[in-house]
Amino acid sequence: MSTKQVNDNKDNKNKSSFLRLLLGNLFGSRKELSLMEEEQVQSPLRTVVKTFKSNKVAMTGFVLFIVILLTVLIGPIFKPIDLSFSETSQQNIAPGYDLMEYPDAIVGKVADIAVGPTFSVATSTDGQLYIWGKTRVTGVVDIRNLPRDQNTKQLIDMGNLVRVAAGFDHAIALNDQGQLFGWGNDRQRQATIPMELNNTKIKDIYAGYQSSLVLTEDGRSVYFGNTMNNDYNEFHPYQGKLAKIAVTADAAMGLTVDGEAVYLGAQQSSYSRIPENMGKVVDIAATASTMAAVNEDGQVFVWGNISVQGEGTVPETDSKIVKIYGGRYHYTALTENNDVVGWGADYYKQATVPSSVNSADIETIYSGFYQNYGITKDGQILTWGLKGYLFGTDELGRDIFTRLLNGGRMSMTIGAVAVIISTTIGIVVGALSGFFGGKIDLVLQRLSEVVSSLPFLPFAMILSALIGNSMESNQKIGLIMVILGLLSWPSLQRLVRAQVLSVREQEYVIAARALGVKEMNIVFKHILPNVISVIIVSATLSFASSMLTESSLSYLGFGVQAPQPTWGNMLYGANNSIVIQNYWWRWVFASIVLGICVICINLVGDGLRDAIDPKSQER
Amino acid sequence: MLKYTSKRILYMIFVFSIMSVILFSLYDMIPGDPARAEVETLKELLKPDEYQRAYEQARERLGLNDPTHIRYGKWVKGLLKGDLGMSAVHKQPVAKIIGTPLKNTIFINIFAVIIGLGITIPLGIYCAIKKNSTFDKAVQVLTIVGYSIPVFIFALLFIYLFAVKLGWFPVSGMATPNFKGTEWQAFLDKLKYLVLPLGVMTIGSLGGITRYVRAAMADALTMDYIKTARAKGLKEKVVIFSHAWRNALLPVVTLLIGWFMSIFYGSLIIERMFALNGLGKLLIDSLNNQDYPVVMAIQLFYIVIALTGNLITDLSYGIVDPRVRVNK
Q1: Which of A127, B96, B153, B240 is 20 to 30 Å from B12 by CA-CA measure?
Q2: Nearest CA in chain B to A600
Q3: CA distance A207 to A195
Q4: Distance CA A595, CA B72 (A)
């Protein structure tokens, strides 16, 4: 048997025994040994593992930490982050999956559903109004606050409502007497019904971003709301000829009774470049930035500011499309055979039509923003699209859960790299200083004193601000790792040095010297493995403190910069009382997960120290 | 002792000069041209060649044409004269700006340290004596939680609970605007504003120091001389406070002095969160406004404090433990 084989055998034996120990202890398959036997066969590592495992607190911390670690390592694969993403319609939404939780009372008697960014408004066939979802649009505006009489402050009796429309932050409703009601955000007077509409017969109502449109029975359109942001020409040539209207976030289009899609604005824009030769248009719809029309042959034309998200790529269908509905960045269409197809942006699965919907007999669809409601022939309601957010959204409409997952990975990576840097420096400096002593020791110790006497946080801030000023976000992440690593090695260095000093004079070192082993090899191959336990404990604890420091730095705005998330900089926006009070989910979840993670690492570190150094347990 | 002290002071000066070189070169690395910034306003008024001349003059006056080491020399000379430079944002000498914030920071931190010490030392000693009791274990778990959670999270919680939900204390600031009353009332008003920040700071510092005191005390209590003292029939109080505590003091002293030093920079995050006009807030604001002379002055001040702290720690070893004195 060659030496190599012997070594292999030895390795295998070690491995299998460790595995057996792990599995055996996990599943309890091994029979318990008596005390004497155990003492004989137990290697130091086994003792450590066993002591550690008998420490319930440390084990709990360990398991929890592993769970968090795996979550932030695997989670981002399923929930990747788009750093450039922001969505104004989804800002500061509270946690919960109730965006499409329609009330049971409405099933079977839907008259109309209107979808807003985070809420939906509906009327039933018996004229009742229903509102669901996240209705608190801003700190003061709540869609659930129905219009009140200005003098008596009593709720206005709206009668039997037949139509509703939901805009960005307001809603309007029409009753069977032809009366209109508006509520919600009224800063641009988009919820204030103009007097001229009092004696007009109204056919349909539409609501958009800070604007409302009314289609009268005689084919005229009446606009109210913000006239600066929205391109709408009151005197457009199609007054009196309109059959339907669709609104984008900043413009409106109409469908004339002759089947022509027309632009209702005054300015030349990509909206006004309506495709020619569409033939007779039967239905129109609009997303936030595009317009679409369906002609008699079921052909769909999309124009406007078509984004990369794919509003323009209409899928092939078996039967021809007859109806089309627009969401925020997607279209949903109904075919002759009552099949439903969706296309466009799909990050909330709003354009992916579930099979249950396709197998059902869909009669009408209500789409808007990121929600779709399909009404079957027998009155059932099927929903698909954005249900809500597990942990809510932040000030830019980004999903906090996704950011927590990705931010966790970033926080842990920074902590880990910083620890690797500081541990490497600490080991090298400590080992050299302890083993060689003399002048080397003197210089290295003074250096270490200088570094350790620097006030950590202010100095890290200054370094990050001075050097990182001109850096890109990725370079800055690297810089933070290096700063944390470079500033936190002295404590480990001192530990290693002390340990090396104590083992330097032991027999095996003298033996190694006598054998003529090189000094460097003695230090790093013979002495270091004997002080590894101290290093492991120290590295674990400094992993925790690195994560803490990173989060403090990022929280103050001197660490990793947004949009790249870390647990620290996710709290950056939360340092004013308005956010703390109104949008608690923006700081609570990040705080909890950061706190738990650091506590777990510290528990593991403490447990390891107790296991490795039984003397400390006697305390 | 005297020789040792003077050696240490020499060493301090050496370290300080190294740090000043590092800081100066960092400062030097910042992109930007102060001379350009100074004459920028004249650009509209002057002809191009006059403007160029004004720019050259400004460069000359600010010493930007000199090589780095000469500029460093000038800067150090200024420092020694007490000239810390001009703040670009406040348009005032840095030495003038730093006064009030420094006073505020010391005021806040002295309270925090006193409250902290008042809690941690008795608690640590008690835990060491009642080692492994339920109380001790509960404290151990709580202290881990205490030092694992960053102060700003405690601050967020405190603001949410006590300022927003309960409305007991103001959220930020140091005094009620336009407050009228006697000096005593003004002091009470200030205290009201400081309750939350002080509470957060105390909680943040409890964990680590309690554990440290407990560990040192527990170590001392296992020593043989404690057994001897007990065997002699000394009262438990005497054993603990006279024998054990004095010996436990040595490791604790390092920590305590470090903590006292943090009186000057310990409240960085808290000052910012509660909008307290302290040194830490000034540092953050100056960094954000790129007002580097102020940043440099504060950082140099921190380094001096840290080095002094080191010296005091080493000297106090000798006072606390005569054995250390013999070696030096």
Answers
A1: B96
A2: B148
A3: 18
A4: 44
Please tell me the distance from the alpha carbon of residue B266 to that of residue B109, in angstroms, as a whole number. Answer: 7
Which range (A20-34, A73-87, A116-130, A160-174) has the least confidence?
A20-34
Radius of gyration from C-alpha coordinates of chain A:
34
ipTM of this complex: 0.84
Q: pLDDT, tens digit, for every residue of A282-328?
A: 999 999 999 999 999 889 999 998 888 888 888 888 889 999 999 99
Distance (Å) from the alpha carbon of B234 to chain A's nearest alpha carbon: 22
Q: Name the DSSP class of A530.
A: G
B207 pLDDT more than 50: yes
- What sign results for the dihedral spanned by CA atoms A616, A617, A618, A619? positive
Taking the CA of residue B52 as centre, how many other CA atoms within 13 Å lie in the half-sphere pointing to its CB?
2
Per the prediction, chain A carries an average pLDDT of: 86
Higher pLDDT among residues A309 and A424, named by residue: A424
Q: How many CA atoms lie within 13 A of B70 on its CB side?
A: 7
Residues A15-19: what's their mean pLDDT? 58
Which of A448-457, A585-594, B137-146, B314-323 ranks highest by mean pLDDT? A585-594
Please indicate if any CB of chain A lies within 8 Å of the CB of B79. Answer: no
Coil, strand or helix: which one is A326? strand
Verify whether the Cβ–Cβ distance A584 to B27 is below 8 Å: no
CA A27 vs. chain centroid, Å, equals: 37
| Cβ A584 vs Cβ A93: under 8 Å | no
Helices (H) and strands (E) in chain A — how many of each? 16, 21
Candidates A453, A556, A577; nearest CB to B269: A556
Least confident of A343-352, A551-560, B114-123, B262-271: B262-271
Tens digit of each residue's pLDDT (9 = 90 or more) over A67-92? 999 999 999 998 888 888 888 888 88
Q: Among all chains, which residue has been given the structure tokens 């018996």?
A: A126
Query: Does the pTM exceed 0.90?
Result: no
Beta strands in B35-162 (DSSP E): none
Record: contact B159-A580, CB cut-off 8 A: yes
Does residue B13 sit at the A interface (CB-CB below 8 Å)?
no
Higher pLDDT, B205 or A241: A241
Is B147 within 8 Å of chain A by CB?
Answer: yes
CB contact under 8 A, A599 and B172: no
CA-based nearest residue to B247, from B262, B225, B266: B225
> Which residues 171-210 of chain B have a CB within 8 Å of chain A?
171-172
Residue in B15, B160, B303 closest to A580 by CB: B160
Verify whether the Cβ–Cβ distance B163 to A558 is below 8 Å. no
Nearest-CB residue to B307 (from A453, A555, A584): A453
Asked whether the beta carbons of residue A556 and residue B26 sit closer than 8 angstroms, the reply is: no
Give the separation between CA B296 and CA B304, rounded to whole angstroms: 12
Instruction: Give, in order, the Cα–Cα distances in Å from B84 to each of A405, B295, B299.
Output: 46, 10, 12
CA distances, A273 to each of A238, A269, A288, A304 (Å): 16, 7, 17, 8
pLDDT reported for residue A616: 53
The Cα-based distances of B113 to A325, A424, A528, B64, B267 in angstroms read: 65, 35, 40, 44, 11
User: Would you give the DSSP letter of residue A148?
Assistant: B
B309/A contact by beta carbon, under 8 A: yes
pLDDT tens string A331-341: 999 998 888 99
Q: Which residues are bridge partners to B165 per DSSP?
A: none
Of A571, A577, A619, the CB nearest to B152: A571
Does B19 sit within 8 Å of A462, measured CB to CB? no
Q: Which residues of B touch A601 (CB under 8 A)?
A: 148
Residue A205 near residue A211, CB atoms below 8 Å: no
Is 70 exceeded by the pLDDT of residue A28?
A: no
As a whole number of angstroms, the distance between CA A32 and CA A585 comes to 49
